[in-house]
């Protein structure tokens, strides 16, 4: 087929997936930092912080990502005039990263919290019984076990984040799904091929990622 | 809260004072943050009464929000029914002992779980019309996309559920002379469905949120009608987005609460789950957050 030999189409394909990759990478880092902070708030002894964490999770977990990203564009950028970069594409990119991060952070937070919950209370009690301090209990006993059990949920959050990155196309970033839409509209005789190439690229990256995280989680699992 | 009991003791007098001080400090910080956001929107004139007044008029609700909500719920309901059917068929197919059924079923499920929903909706909406030489309505584009994705996720959930039914159940059924299809239909699926009910309901939340993707292909759902069309008339895009977000949050919170209630209810009389070959962790992550 001549679609994928045409250099302009190859460029569009590559840049589309590069945007997805950049969105996923940048949002994963931001969401991880934010999610850890939120999880720390949600398990902290300070009621105000707990309330803030809970409110964040309930708001963003129950709002469609399309709406979150839409709000980032029309609310933060159009209305409040928050401009994150001079270049139009870069600005849309960073607005997308903001939307993806605040949304994904809610899921990261829940993954961490459930990870902490999988550590039996007896572990901390035993740690205290042998005289470990609070910091030692956390550092040596609780968090290492919790970290192992969040590997699998982190994997699925990361995969979902990568797939969700396509939604940033809504606010005008020409990422993979938008490229696919444009190609379909120009090459009506090869729609199945176009879909299979784009969907196949996602599948080729994400299915092994899923198995990798499954393997890793299995390997790191705390045997109880 | 069990998480707090792992991490720290019940607060003593000094910890109580410290927590109170931290509460005040962070509380003030939080209020300052909210106030800052409020003033930012205020400077942009977003709290003006004329932007919020449309929501006190009944025509706003009857013409924009309620029809949009109805379209969202319709797509979610049809998508859910089809996803359940799709999930059931492919779960049973993947558990089949004939490799020419189980391998293709597994491939389909793995493939559609890994492909972004938006890509499928675009394919059905923009691509399929070229194949069938006729238009595809936005409704079916959304519903088919939702079915393929959520059906695949549910197929994995069902498969885990069917495998979690104790082996003695199917052995006993074979012993009383049932055929394979009868064992699946009368013994395994009913028990698996009960154990999987909370996951099914929480997947419904994901599905309902995903109907918002219909906005991108101009399906007149809640976002399209409630934000785009409404603000085209009144110019209150931020106000409309906030109202629509609150509607989504209310509906999804109710569904989440339902899932939690079902989990507690079914949890008390769940069948004994035997030691599984695969770790539970791999199965418990099947519900993935989606847009």
UniProtKB/TrEMBL annotation, chain A:
Q: Which GO terms describe its molecular function?
A: transmembrane transporter activity
Looking at the record, the residues that make up the ABC transmembrane type-1 domain are: 17-208
What does the UniProt keyword field contain?
Answer: Amino-acid transport, Cell membrane, Membrane, Transmembrane, Transmembrane helix, Transport
Which PANTHER family does the protein's record reference? AMINO-ACID ABC TRANSPORTER PERMEASE PROTEIN YHDX-RELATED (PTHR30614:SF37), MEMBRANE COMPONENT OF AMINO ACID ABC TRANSPORTER (PTHR30614)
Protein family per UniProt: Belongs to the binding-protein-dependent transport system permease family. HisMQ subfamily.
Q: How does it sit in the membrane?
A: Multi-pass membrane protein
**InterPro entries reported in the protein's UniProt record:** AA_ABC_transptr_permease_3TM, ArtM/GltK/GlnP/TcyL/YhdX-like, MetI-like, MetI-like_sf
Which source organism? Micromonospora endolithica
Q: Where in the cell is it found?
A: Cell membrane
**Where does this protein have coiled-coil stretches?**
none
Protein's UniProt name: Amino acid ABC transporter permease
One Pfam family linked to the record? BPD_transp_1
Give me the segments passing through the membrane: 12-38, 59-80, 92-112, 190-214
Gene Ontology process terms (BP): amino acid transport
Stored PROSITE patterns: ABC_TM1 (PS50928)
TrEMBL record, chain B:
Question: What family is this?
Answer: Belongs to the binding-protein-dependent transport system permease family.
For this protein, the record's SUPFAM superfamilies field holds:
MetI-like
List the Gene Ontology MF annotations in alphabetical order.
transmembrane transporter activity
Q: Which NCBIfam families match?
A: HEQRo_perm_3TM
Q: Does the keyword Translocase apply?
A: no
Q: Where in the cell is it found?
A: Cell membrane
| Pfam families named in the record | BPD_transp_1 (PF00528)
**GO cellular-component terms in the record?**
ATP-binding cassette (ABC) transporter complex
Can you give the residue ranges of the ABC transmembrane type-1 domain? 69-255
What UniProt keywords apply to this chain's record, in alphabetical order?
A: Cell membrane, Membrane, Transmembrane, Transmembrane helix, Transport
Q: Does the keyword Membrane apply?
A: yes
Output this protein's name: Amino acid ABC transporter permease
Note the topology in the membrane. Answer: Multi-pass membrane protein
Could you tell me the Gene Ontology terms of the biological process aspect for this record?
amino acid transport
Entries under InterPro entries matching the protein: AA_ABC_transptr_permease_3TM (IPR010065), ArtM/GltK/GlnP/TcyL/YhdX-like (IPR043429), MetI-like (IPR000515), MetI-like_sf (IPR035906)
